[in-house]
Design a protein that fits this description.
The complex is a heterodimer of chains A (about 350) and B (about 400). Chain A has about 350 residues and is mainly alpha-helical. Chain A has a domain at about 85-305: MetI-like (MetI-like fold). Chain A has 16 helices and 2 strands. Chain A is globular, with a radius of gyration of 26 Å. Chain B is α/β, with parallel strands linked by helices. Chain B has 2 domains: about 40-145 and about 300-365, 3-Layer(aba) Sandwich (D-Maltodextrin-Binding Protein, domain 2); about 150-300 and about 370-410, Periplasmic binding protein-like II (D-Maltodextrin-Binding Protein, domain 2), CATH 3.40.190.10. Chain B is elongated, with a radius of gyration of 28 Å. The chains are: A mainly alpha (about 350), B alpha/beta (about 400).
Chain lengths: ~350, ~400
């Protein structure tokens, strides 16, 4: 759009003649504090961490300077290919987090959508339920972790309730047995079959990869579903309220049942929200740290170890900064790939290719 | 209107000029005035306190030194000692002195974060074994300030209830197994302890094994003696007379003992503070651990003060360390929060004050500290994680795995 004086707009000119110029300058001025804050507290530390992952810095003095030397992909090679404690810890952490993600994301998305559909109706008192379902999300994750530690104590409330119905609860946070191993043991398979015991990936045997989440990890899964369903419920609620009521009425007139309405009208129309919720869920679950740090710190038997916590532990407690930073960036790569994968899978099937939009002539 | 504006504008200009001149005058005056520079420095001390008793004791000792020397001391109680130390070293502005466990000293010394303390004034007053635990590549990197050993702590009521007397204190493994069996009654387990190297390691020493060979160059975790030790532990677990704390859901052996879930536990001096504070109604006694096939053995845990290599007040900081590890101050700490002094001169008075804890001090004659090797804490951390599965799995694969890891850091 031409300026008042007819000049062509140049993006590098912060100040232009006329009111548009003043608005541009004002815009930059308003953005400046956020840019500075994001730059100093986000961009610079990430760049420094990337440098540390390619260096041999040992924690003494600043990594930017004479204290750290370039070692290329040495830290990544050591972490991914060199047999040892670092590799097997990383493999264990990945395994634990994969099961956590596979269980938390679908369950919390489904629960959030279910709750949103429930509170979307105009009933008396639905506001109370909206608040109640959202409440766990506003509470501090540290507080909820401590509460769950207390509830799921072997001599705590949950086991006491289970004992009233005659069942003995497991020692929840102290139980390292994997869920799949427990199920297989019911069928008599309690030792690794030869084919699975001998092979390994990232220092973890195939049998251990198929162990499933441990009982302790399952409590964390429950905690995650409990705390984050509320936030996603709100997102789904916003999406649901964007669906015009007349569409549902028309479908009802045509004789559609509630389930068909939900499956063929509601779900396709909230596809963008679904993508948002699944992506946020993936990002959040791959980054789990607070609950592990406050709760079990990787115990029992490393079954609640996650890459984020491993990165922290490797750097701060083992003074192995290069490997810790490498773990963080591999985690970043994993999250980005999963996000792209989700984008691919939730792409609308009747998407018009970019070229052909708005008519053929361009 | 113009004249009015001109009047105001003139007034503002005059006012601005006056203010500027005054400000300049003050600034020049301050710059030229001779500064009363004091030679008092502030020494920062970072501690990982076991509780209010310890914080109070350290603050008191620091205040006394302040009064004596005129320097100030800033005692910081760390919420996460490892993380705060790491931040200090990376920023180039670390605390001058800080708590340092002997399992961490080699890792930090290797990274050049520590200054040697070979010239400490009272370096000869410490037990030689404690000095050795803090020596890396021939230099002393921390001043030992206290130490603890592990002993067998038993519930005297349960003891009497099972019909046992002072003659039955176990002196061999067989006696330990039988006593534990007799004490497993009324919903109480005979013996409980943490599923960690830091407790079960005593059996390794009693069987004649250890983590490393005598010269410290070879890992011996999977030798026959250690396997015997862990098989003995497994046999007691199988017999039902011993449980690991993760099986009963206790946080540590002291908690299981205090909650009366077990009649005996293997713990260090620190249990005294916990018992007085949290479980005052449980009567207990500490006796020496039984001897195994190769004799007596127990683990030793050392606390020390480290000095940062980048400290800007090394002389004053070393003087403070000397003061805090002096005979009188260490005795005061022992009285306040139950640790054993690291100076030989305090041994007699400590034995007189605490005859009931003589088992802990007796252990000092045959106790071993964790080897001073960089990254040993990482390997022991994995050993602890693997031992959590000891009741269900064989000891041999665990020992083989840890042996491999330990050998890789000994190279």
């Amino acid at each position: 759009m031409p300026t008042r004086s007819g000049e062509r707009r140049s993006w590098w000119r912060l100040r232009e003649p006329g009111i548009r110029g003043r608005q541009t300058a004002a815009g930059w001025l308003f953005l400046a504090p956020v840019i500075v804050i994001l730059g100093v507290f986000l961009v610079l530390p990430i760049a420094a961490a990337l440098w540390v992952s390619f260096s041999d810095w040992n924690g003494n003095g600043s990594p930017i300077g004479a204290n750290a030397h370039w070692v290329g992909l040495e830290n990544y090679r050591h972490l991914l290919t060199e047999p040892g404690l670092d590799q097997s810890n990383f493999g264990t952490a990945l395994r634990n987090n994969v099961y956590y993600v596979l269980l938390v994301v679908p369950v919390q998305t489904a629960v959030a959508l279910f709750l949103a559909v429930l509170v979307n109706r105009r009933l008396k008192g639905v506001g109370f339920f909206r608040t109640a379902f959202y409440f766990p999300s506003v509470t501090s994750s540290v507080a909820i972790t401590v509460l769950f530690l207390f509830l799921f104590d072997p001599a705590g409330v949950i086991n006491k309730l289970l004992s009233y119905v005659g069942a003995t609860g497991p020692p929840w946070f102290f139980d390292p047995r994997g869920l799949f191993h427990i199920v297989l043991a019911q069928f008599g398979v309690d030792q690794a079959p030869a084919s699975l015991a001998n092979g390994s990936f990232l220092g973890v045997s195939y049998w251990e990869w198929l162990a499933g989440p441990s009982v302790a990890m399952c409590v964390f899964i429950l905690m995650a579903v409990f705390t984050t369903s509320g936030t996603f419920m709100l997102l789904f609620l916003a999406g649901l309220q964007g669906i015009d009521e007349s569409v549902n009425e028309a479908a009802a007139l045509d004789g559609a049942t509630e389930w068909r309405k939900f499956r063929y009208i509601t779900v396709p129309m909230i596809r963008p929200v679904l993508f948002t919720v699944v992506t946020l869920g993936l990002i959040g679950t791959w980054q789990i740290f607070d609950q592990i740090y406050v709760g079990t710190k990787g115990s029992p038997a490393n079954t609640t170890l996650t890459p984020a916590f491993l990165s922290f532990n490797t750097s701060f407690n083992q003074n192995n900064w290069g490997v810790g930073a490498a773990i963080a960036f591999i985690l970043f790569a994993i999250i980005v790939s999963f996000t792209l994968l989700t984008r691919l899978l939730t792409r609308s099937p009747d998407r018009v290719p970019r070229r052909r939009r708005f008519g053929a002539a361009r | 209107m113009n004249a009015h504006r001109k009047n105001w504008s003139a007034r503002w200009r005059v006012a601005l000029a006056v203010v500027t001149v005054c400000a300049l005058a003050v600034a020049v005056g301050a710059a030229l005035a001779s500064p009363t520079r004091s030679h008092a420095v502030t020494v920062t001390a970072l501690i990982g306190s076991s509780g209010p008793a310890e914080t109070f004791a350290v603050n008191n000792a620091a205040a006394a030194w302040s009064k004596q020397t005129g320097n100030k001391v800033n005692v910081i109680v760390a919420s996460d000692l490892g993380q705060q130390l790491a931040q200090g070293f990376a920023s180039g502005n670390p605390p001058d002195i800080f708590y340092l466990g002997n399992d961490q000293v080699a890792t930090y010394a290797k990274a050049n974060d520590l200054a040697p303390l070979d010239n400490l004034k009272n370096v000869k007053s410490f037990y030689p074994s404690l000095r050795a635990a803090y020596t890396y590549k021939g230099h002393l990197y921390a001043a030992p300030k206290d130490f603890s050993t592990l002993a067998l702590v038993l519930n005297t009521n349960s003891w009497k209830g099972a019909g046992l007397t002072a003659k039955d204190y176990p002196k061999t493994w067989a006696q330990l197994a039988s006593v534990a069996k007799k004490l497993t009654r009324n919903g109480q387990v005979g013996l409980c302890t943490n599923p960690e190297f830091h407790r079960l390691g005593v059996f390794m020493l009693q069987a004649g094994g250890w983590l490393v060979s005598k010269d410290g160059k070879t890992a011996t975790v999977n030798n026959k003696a250690n396997l015997t030790a862990f098989n003995f532990v497994k046999s007691m677990i199988k017999a039902g007379s011993m449980k690991l704390t993760n099986q009963i859901g206790a946080g540590w052996g002291g908690e299981g003992f205090g909650k009366k879930e077990c009649a005996m536990t293997i713990e260090g001096n620190w249990i005294a503070g916990a018992m007085t504070h949290d479980y005052p109604t449980v009567p207990y006694k500490a006796v020496e651990l039984p001897a195994g096939p190769a004799g007596k053995g127990t683990l030793q845990y050392d606390g020390g003060w480290g000095l940062a290599a980048k400290s800007k007040n090394k002389t004053e900081a070393m003087a403070l360390i000397s003061y805090l590890t002096a005979t009188k101050v260490e005795m005061g700490n022992a009285k306040a929060f139950g640790v054993m002094p690291s100076v030989k001169a305090d041994a007699k008075e400590w034995k007189k004050l605490y005859p009931q804890f003589s088992a802990f001090l007796a252990g000092a004659d045959y106790s071993r500290s964790i080897p001073t090797v960089p990254d040993i804490a990482t390997v022991l951390g994995d050993f602890n994680q693997q031992l959590q599965g000891l009741p269900q799995s064989d000891a041999k694969p665990i020992l083989n795995r840890v042996n491999g890891e330990l050998q890789s850091i000994l190279k």
